[in-house]
Design brief:
The structure is a single chain. With about 80 residues, the protein is mostly beta strands. Helices cover about 10% and strands about 30% of the residues. It has a domain of about 50 residues. The radius of gyration is 13 Å and the shape is globular. The protein starts with 10 loop residues before the first strand and ends in a 23-residue tail after the last strand. Bound molecules: zinc ion.
Length: about 80
């Protein structure tokens, strides 16, 4: 398995999107626990490294073309589809 070195400022996509609808997170802390900030709503979480590494689907190193976070949604937007 490839060893990935995460750095502060990296953007990752996790298996589970945040309830706010954003599925990319910015790494703001590394170490035994990883600190992630939701790019949609700014919510912060701490995740133990093994759990974090399993949850990552995709990674963009700092400054390398991470997709823009989705625009903020109104609080009660669950289940609605825009089209
Ligand atoms: Zn969020």
């Amino acid at each position: 398995m490839e060893i990935v070195r995460y750095a502060i400022g990296d953007v990752v996509r996790l298996k589970k999107p945040h309830p706010c609808g954003c599925d990319t997170w910015e790494v703001y802390r590394t170490g035994v626990d990883f600190g992630l900030r939701c790019r949609g709503c700014g919510h912060r979480v701490m995740i133990p490294r093994p759990k974090f590494e399993k949850a990552v689907r995709q990674r963009w190193p700092l400054g390398e073309g991470a997709p823009d976070p989705p625009p903020p949604k109104p609080a009660q937007g669950k289940g609605q589809k825009r089209r």
